[in-house]
Amino acid sequence: MRRPDRLAMGIAGRDRLLSLAGFLAVWWIAARVAASPTLLPSPMAVALFIGRECEDGAMPAAFAATLLRVVVAFGVAMAGGTVVGYAAGRSGRANAWLDPWVVIALNLPVLVVIVLAYIWVGLNDTAAVLAVVIAKAPTVVVTVREGTRALDPGLAEMAAAFRLPRLRRLRHVVLPQLLPYLAAAGRSGLSITWKIVLVVELLGRPNGVGYVLNLYFQNFNVTGILAYGLAFAGLMLLVEAAILQPLERRTSAWRSDV
After folding, report:
1. Which of 39, 99, 203, 215 lies 20 to 30 Å from 46 when distance is taken between CA atoms?
2. 126 vs 173, which has greater pLDDT?
3. Are the C-beta atoms of 200 and 69 separated by less than 8 Å?
4. Class of the 42-257 domain?
5. Do the beta carbons of residue 76 and residue 133 sit within 8 Å?
6. Are 210 and 200 within 8 A, CB to CB?
């Protein structure tokens, strides 16, 4: 990595930390102004609550259940959406058949999808994952379809001229050009997926972060709601910063060298 790139990344990391510090400061001031721990607890109160939940194992267990659903649903949605999106981008006729389905899925309310999945499949994890996949996959289809349409025809002609086998052509010509689109779909998709999973758990699962949030909502426990909500959001922020953002930079690096 070039020195200017490292410097820019260092500045960006510092700015992110300052932004998070500003968020905590605004939260602390708002809690002092509200002067009501039941309405808006302080950051310290929420941090202590998280510590207690971690000590007795309640929060790790809830996180494990939710993360498993997120990983499975995210993986299935990315795989299925990539295949369908590539087919739609390569063939006008396939896109004509698939586009109405994609538009319907994009505009169908998530709540409707979740309720129907629970009614048709049952109150189980299969229905939960299916609902998330149906809600998430269309955005992957649209992103990959546009990426496929943007493929360089010159590279495709060169591969055909050298008579590259189909698998090698897909691996060395198509995939490198699609990786930035896949990375972008993954970054946006992960945030959408875990939010949908929480709703799915709130409506029909006996465990997970969404289920716990529902319990605290029924008891008007704002501290518990903030603790689980912010802790899980922080975990997803860490995953994005440690995995998804570096992956996106790596998949897009070849463009700057061309």
Report:
1. 203
2. 126
3. yes
4. mainly alpha
5. yes
6. yes
- Take residue 215 and report the two structure tokens written for it: 């319990």
Q: Which two tokens stand for residue 66?
A: 């939710």
pLDDT of residue 156: 67
Q: Where does residue 209 rank: exposed (0-12), middle (13-18), buried (19+ CB within 10 A)? A: buried
Task: Map residue 35 onto helix, strand or coil.
Answer: coil
pLDDT, mean over the chain: 85
- Joined tokens for residue 118: 């629970």
Give residue for tokens 């972008």: 184
- Interhelix angle 209-218/58-90, nearest 10 degrees: 120
All structural domains of the chain with their residue ranges = 42-257
In the prediction, which pLDDT does 257 show?
Answer: 52
Minimal CA–CA distance to 27: which of 179, 163, 222, 217? 222
pLDDT at 94 over 70: yes
Compute the distance between CA of residue 25 and CA of residue 142 in angstroms, rounded to an integer. 39
The two tokens of residue 257 are: 């060298």
220: alpha, beta or left? (left if phi > 0; alpha if psi -120 to 50): left
Percent of the chain with pLDDT over 90: 47
User: CB–CB of 249/183 below 8 Å?
Assistant: no
What are the tokens at 65? 């259940």
For residues 103-117, average pLDDT: 91
Q: What are 239's two structure tokens?
A: 């995953």
Tokens 């996106």, located at residue: 248
